[in-house]
Amino acid sequence: MKPNNQLTKQAFLLTGALVASGAAAQAQSADALIDKLVNKGILTADEAQELRAQSDEGFTAAYKAKTGMPEYVDAMRFKGDFRGRYEGFFKDTPGFVDRNRFRYRVRFGVTIDLMDDFEVGFRLGSGDISGINAGISGVDPISNNQTFQDNGAKKGIFIDLAYATWRPLKGPIWSSSTTIGKMNNPFVFSSMVFDSDYSPEGVAQGIGYRVNDIHTLNSAFGAFVLDEVGGSSRDPYLFGGQVRLESSWNADWKSSFGVAMLSVINRDRLRNNDVLNINVGNDRDPVTTAPVYAFNTVVVDGALTYTIENGIPMYNAKFPITLAADYLHNNSAAEDGTGYSVGIQFGKSGKRGLWDVGYTYKHLEGNAWYEEFLNSDSGAYYPSALANSGQGIGYRAGTNIKGHEVKVQYSPFDAITFGLAGYFLEAVNPTPGPGGSDIVRVQADAQLKF
Q1: pTM confidence score
Q2: Mean pLDDT calculated for residue range 441-448
Q3: Beta strand segments in 284-415, E
């Protein structure tokens, strides 16, 4: 006798409602039961989809009731990572003492999706409080690294992100977003322009337009506060705009091309003691220590990726090869205002069994861009102090660098990636002293994400 479908579905809806009031594991069991009913011909594919949707709605309602989550909250997502690192600094110069240190970085955040296309997010992260400039609020803006030191002293956790976003357009053709707060950098650049850990504070607008099946135009605009100066209306700000064309020509070829304009306003309020003085490289006034030149920098970048569809030996997936380059020029600098880089990467890590190998050559003159935005991993050795920098002899990151970077990464599992990086850099304009400015920095990482 053929089962009564309507009766079966009603019984299953009751079961689904009960399941929805339980744990997520029970909801997964409901999906498995739906699949069995489809396989036996009791439910059609459309009916199965309808039941899944009703089961999900019931689960969401029950979860909100149990946790006290407001009705206007659609979803809550957690994300984090931990990275352990060995780092060494080496230089073949008499009197130079090799440096070895161990560090960690930990980050944990939550993203909350609200009704009416709003999103709120925050993230906490580690940071090194040792060596903070007196009177400065916060820790290193371009690094979440914390060094193992001080006899196991308790270390700090800080606000790394705190923002709200509205996305009124999420269609297939147009998309838009407005974000306010302390956010992920809305601009897409290499480490020649911003350190990947830099999270600016202000407001940003993003607009996307899908031109056709091949091309998509994305734009980003931002206004960010660099410091708040009491007793003055001349606070320093960063203003920027970027337009990028992302193209997927076919299954094998992809490209990107971007143009941006970045400006720092009221640079006279960026003296050595106004903000965290982490990096060096800019020419600075001997009296005020503010940067000598304004920053009105144009950045052009491009990338071309070819994918080998069937992969290669020892790489069990589509194998990407990416050639990338960027160029920047500070229109307000009378000298040392240009930078460029070119690099190639084979493969892409991040999934089980995948790896990548990359090489980059970079040349970044001292006044091409504001030194405190730059990648803190790329630096040179100064045998004597850079004039008016507020820093002494030794290794210093920032602008005024050139040389080679090599990176290798491997992911034995989806959640774990091991990395090895070498930085072989020197100063574009070295300071006088024995041994030169070249130095080798080596990093070995183990990163776990969740």
Answers
A1: 0.85
A2: 99
A3: 295-308, 319-330, 338-347, 354-364, 379-382, 394-397, 401-413
